[in-house]
Predict the structure.
Amino acid sequence: MVDFHSHILPSIDDGSKNIEESMALLKLLVEQEVKTVVASSHFYADFESPESFLERRNKAYNELSLCLSSDFPNILLGAEVRFYSGISRMKELSSLCVEGTKLLLLEMPFSRWTEYTVNELVELSCSNEIKIVLAHIERYLHMQEFGLLERLREQGILVQVNASFFESMLSRRKAFKMLKNGYIDFIGSDCHNIKHRPPTINVSREAIAKKFGVDFLNDFIEYSNNLLAKYRV
Ligand SMILES: [Fe+2]
């Protein structure tokens, strides 16, 4: 299974503090049958240039990779890029896509999105160089106008939800409905640390298998894998 959203790289953002914690997170992902994990460290254009971010990210990965063996999940370097007004004009945006693909994990404002914001998303969705994946969309949907998700899907915008969406009774119902209706493309752990925000991909796997059966779960896993392949560059 793919974990499309994680903060496993050491000492780069508010995720893993050091190599030991990164290794512990990766071991949990192995136990949860994650074969590929996207290392989506936070990127904030207000604070840093893409060049500087990529240099820091690659350094963190290189240090971690010295400790990795083939038992660990395949790590794809990426970023969780915070949306800002004008992002569609950012020249280096494609350098922040998930390694080897045109998939860009975008973190949206925690508020009702303005028409200007939505229009900019639509504009981004027309790019040939990137394919947008909205990060943990379950956090924002209740604040948006009715029908927005359908509108964004029509533009080909992809959706990631966190594994925790499948945890509580209340949110699980919404998660199942979205999954069944084909509104979820990727699940991510969004793991940050061992103590407070460990990976819980297993919770989502088990919930999906229990609700819809193992074949459905496997089909979803295959679908996500195929998307990674489909948008390879
Ligand atoms: Fe995140």
